[in-house]
Specification:
405 residues; UDP-n-acetylglucosamine1-carboxyvinyl-transferase, Chain; 12 helices; 18 strands; 29% helix; globular
């Protein structure tokens, strides 16, 4: 096991950070580019693990693809390969083999796909017999991962009857569905999304030149760092106010935790303020990937919190609810799950561990969300290289905090 020791003496921060490109946008752009048979290379493509495995699969002449721990790649490629003529096998890491995919497989099968489970029913690896898909109408629980929905949306224009998806119940991660819709429109395909119903007629994508914007999810850790430090400023390059990324909500939310955002032509300037709430309450149903950032920030700032809308966190890279409860306890914070999909800290403390070593559970966001704790107390991060999943240069950037001007 590799580890990284962190001990940052909190000083006034004054840094410029060049964030990675958006993983969410990059992975969608790769699928859309392939569906459009585009001759253009995507500009500013993310260099994270999730994106690189998708690039490798799309560029490969193989029929078997190992996508490691890349959940987005597993879902998007399962749909893409189901309409691509040939016989394919897609597999992944041991954790991936325990992440459910039955809902997507069942949905694709109902639309004409032929997919078999190679090992365990309901989980990867999959054997996919790609062919033309009939399409039609399906109903889905809106509480499923938006990546299932986006995966089907992107291949829908090439289904013989198009696709109509009726989302039932509470629909989560709507900004990610709208991101997919917006990008499909940029590639020349018309999509309607009204009254929880997505309608996509048979049509063709058009090749375009596409440039990926910087990642607002990655930006969240720098908001956290500045909030925990409480002094200084940060400039984050290539972010804009009109982003299709749902996690751009981080700018508004961190106003409650002492960080202000000034949008400038080439990025955003973050500055600190003394204005923060006595209790932080928010429903993360549209931004589940921000939950770890805010849980750690609130604890480190001694701000009790109550989060809702976290149903999808248990099927991410790890069970993020359990992971947060376990690792924040090492820092001396007793947080709990009052009901399914919620997380709360009422201010209760416990004795912090001696020699705090944060487990990352093969989850990039655990590593990055807990790193700012080093501004308060020395910690060790296990398996630090996990950040390569979305932000390969995170530690290089983080280490700048220890560099004296």
């Amino acid at each position: 096991m590799t580890t990284k020791s962190l001990n940052i003496q909190s000083t006034e921060i004054n840094l410029l950070i060049n964030l990675p490109a958006s993983k969410s946008i990059s992975n969608r752009a790769l699928i859309l580019n392939a569906l459009a048979y585009s001759p253009f290379d995507i500009q500013n493509l993310s260099d994270c693990d999730d994106t690189l495995v998708t690039v490798k699969a799309l560029d490969s002449n193989d029929t078997t693809f190992d996508i490691g721990a890349a959940g987005t790649a597993m879902r998007f490629l399962t749909a893409f390969l189901s309409k691509t003529v040939g016989e394919w096998v897609i597999t992944g890491s041991e954790r991936m083999k325990n992440r459910p995919i039955k809902l997507l497989v069942d949905a694709l099968t109902s639309l004409g796909a032929r997919i078999e489970y190679v090992e365990k029913e309901g989980f990867p690896p999959l054997r996919i017999f790609g062919s033309a898909l009939m399409g039609g109408e399906i109903s889905l629980n809106g509480g499923v991962s938006s990546q299932y929905i986006s995966a089907m949306m992107m291949i829908a224009p090439y289904m013989q009857n198009g696709l109509k998806i009726k989302l039932e119940g509470n629909v989560i991660s709507v900004p990610y569905i709208r991101m997919t819709m917006s990008m499909m429109k940029e590639y020349g395909v018309d999509v309607t999304f009204e009254n929880n119903e997505i309608d996509i007629k048979p049509q063709l994508y058009k090749p375009i030149q596409y440039k990926v914007e910087s990642d607002w999810s990655a930006a969240s850790y720098w908001y956290e760092i500045l909030s925990v430090s409480g002094k200084g400023q940060l400039f984050l390059q290539a972010l804009n106010a009109n982003s299709s990324q749902g996690d751009s909500k981080v700018a508004e939310l961190f106003e409650q935790l002492g960080v202000n955002t000034d949008y400038q032509p080439d990025g955003v300037l973050l500055t600190t303020s003394d204005n923060y709430v006595s209790k932080f309450e928010y429903d993360f149903v549209d931004q589940p990937d921000l939950a770890q950032t805010f849980a750690v920030t609130c604890c480190l700032k001694n701000i009790p919190f109550h989060f809702k809308g976290l149903q999808s966190l248990k099927i991410k890279e790890t069970n993020r609810i359990a992971a947060l409860i376990n690792e924040l306890a090492k820092l001396g914070y007793v947080i709990f799950e009052p009901t399914e999909g919620e997380l709360e800290w009422a201010g209760e403390r416990c004795e912090a561990a001696q020699g705090i070593c944060i487990a990352t559970y093969d989850d990039h966001r655990m590593a990055m969300a807990f790193a700012p704790a080093a501004l308060k107390i020395p910690i060790v991060i296990e398996e630090p290289k996990v950040v390569s999943k979305s932000y390969p240069n995170f530690w290089k950037d983080f280490d700048k905090l220890a560099t004296k001007p």
